[in-house]
Amino acid sequence: MRDTHDAFGHALRDYLRGRGRGYEVIERDDGYVDISGGREQFLAEYRDWPPRHRQAVRLARGRVLDIGCGAGRHALYLQRRGLDVLGIDVSPLAVAVCRRRGLRHARVLSIGDVGPSLGTFGTVLMLGNNFGLFGSRARARRLLARLHAITDPDARILAESLDPHDTDNPAHRAYHHANRRRGRLPGQARIRVRYRRYATPWFDYLLVSRDEMRAILRGTGWTATRFLPPRGPLYVALITKAR
Question: Could you tell me the pLDDT band of residue 19, with boundaries at 50, 70 and 90?
Fold first, then answer.
């Protein structure tokens, strides 16, 4: 990733250095914009995490692959608990922030490049809505099969998503309707991240309901066995190998 594209990484580095209280802007291809949670989200300590994150990390075991590790808040917590954690992120500056904060194993790597060279894992962590990094239904199924091949027989994925249907925002509803007309899942968004003068390339990001997640998992060797919490827009799925 070119430095001018690393909007997320520049934001994280500024947060770490205490430079102002800026936010990344999330821009969707229909012109809709929103902002991230900022420094308070990405550098939050365990006690300030939402309950679903605190519950989820307690379920991690074995060697951990943290996909989209960001500033490393989850990976560092698990490392302090004694787990062997590899954090990966497409952002070079995010990985640099992780290393600066003390994460021993961090690499610049996209979810699409995960493969056998990384070794095997007991837990795959995808918190921070990082189920969305799969991008689309077809890509999710393809990459889930790849994760199945590099994980232990009793491995688990802890993946967070947001139910896109749990909204009364007319802009979101119109976007979902347009997606359906194109044969896409309603919550598949084309977005980019902007921060100051930096902007990422456009990429696909996938938000799914619990039922949509179950449908995506079907036939991949994985199954969702628990949702934290069982109801509400934001949730973490405990995904285990199907038997």
Answer: confident
The enclosing domain of 74 has a CATH number of 3.40.50.150
For 129-163, how does the pLDDT look when each residue is reduced to its tens digit (9 = 90+)? 999 999 999 999 999 999 999 999 999 999 999 99
Spatial contact of 168 and 182, defined as CB atoms under 8 Å apart: no
Place of tokens 């302090």: 80
How many Å apart are CA 188 and CA 190, to the nearest integer? 7
Q: What is the rounded CA–CA span in Å between residue 105 and residue 107?
A: 7
For residues 99 and 72, what is the distance between their CA atoms, to the nearest angstrom? 9
Our count of domains for the chain comes to 1
Place of tokens 């199924």: 141
**Rounded distance between C-alpha atoms, residue 167 and residue 176, angstroms:** 11
Structure tokens belonging to residue 215: 């449908």
Q: What is the pLDDT of residue 21?
A: 65
Q: What per-residue confidence (pLDDT) applies to 22?
A: 74
Distance (Å, whole) CA 175 – CA 189: 8
Q: Which domain holds residue 84?
A: 3-241
- Please say whether the beta carbons of 199 and 5 come within 8 A: yes
